Amino acid sequence: MERTGGLEGVVAAETRLSDVDGERGRLTLAGHDVEELAVGWSFEDAAALFLGGDPGSLRAALGAARQRAFARLSDLGPVLRLPNGMDALRGAIAQWPEDSSATDLTAAIGVVAAAWSRLRAGEPPVAPDPAAGHASDLLRAVGGREPPPPRVAALSSYLVTVLDHGMNASTFAARVVASTGSDLVSCVVAAIGALKGPLHGGAPGPVLDMLDAVGSPERAEAWIRAELASGRRIMGMGHRIYRVRDPRAAVLEAAISRIEADPSFAVGPRLRLARAVERTAERILAERHPDRPLKANVEFYTAVLLEAAGVPRTLFSMLFAAARAVGWCAHVAEQKASGRLIRPTSRYVGPQPRSVQAP
Ligand code: COA
User: Fold this and answer.
1) Confidence of residue 72 (pLDDT cuts 50, 70, 90)
2) What is the pTM of this model?
3) Which residues contact 42 (CB under 8 A, 6 or more apart)?
């Protein structure tokens, strides 16, 4: 059956920011392979490729912006207590000043996310350390103490891996709003709304729920078959563009392998379960959709990595936003430079007015 409405294959913009090759499973981020950036590049190193400037200046600017964001938290009102983190984030960022910069908003999303998580756990938000690296300070703001370097490295790999990803739904939403001449805050708020959906950035929490529900590798097959029989999708599997395994799944799986031997993470059993569930899901989905490869996407190993880094699962989508904000803002700047309104068309299939109906 031919599907419409998904805009598959439609080129909506020219971009210098990232390229997703779905046939070969290759992701290029500002001229670098994702595999290169995900090992050893700090958040600031990679974000500077998108936002301009040098990593040292960006580190200082993000630190100062985190401090300013923290000072705003007390003015946000009850929005920080909303039960859904993405609702809280959307409502909070909507209150940011209209002239906020990309650095302001990137910092603000991380600060709001961490504060929301702390309040939810009954703890006070942690004031930022403006001299710290962004990934390290985010982890400290979530956990309340200085994070060990391997944890920071794990989170950095994640943040860098998901900085940008072609014309994904939230980036498209941001570019549509940018094309109207609206402000950056409005673009980012629109993007947060798009990212909230489970088909986009809402999947990694449910991936962990799935691993919990499966419990052990031998139960994977029965659980997955039951899930599909009841009409639900397997979270963390399938992708609009990739016809092979999402390269980001491999990058994040490798990042988890790097910390597997470290007893402080105790991630080994989780990783083995995740690999077993992935293999089983891939096999069963191939049976059901022989013509449509459905393999692990970025969210599958995001879930395992963020859990190992000590991030609560309720915070996963917000941290995704904290990284992707860099891509959103860079795309908004690109879109504004192009200056054209994005305004596609639709095919009317509703009733005709009486004036044009046959007598
Ligand atoms: N589990 C089970 N079936 C799936 C599936 C999944 N994860 N992903 C796709 N399918 C099935 C669809 O039900 C559809 O089946 P049908 O032809 O019998 O109706 C077929 O595969 C094609 O799906 P379609 O909706 O056209 O694919 P898409 O390109 O629109 O969807 C996703 C891409 C990512 C939205 C989809 O794969 C999905 O929902 N994955 C789970 C959510 C997720 O992990 N999101 C994070 C993305 S990074």
Assistant:
1) very high
2) 0.95
3) 55, 59, 133, 134, 135, 156, 160
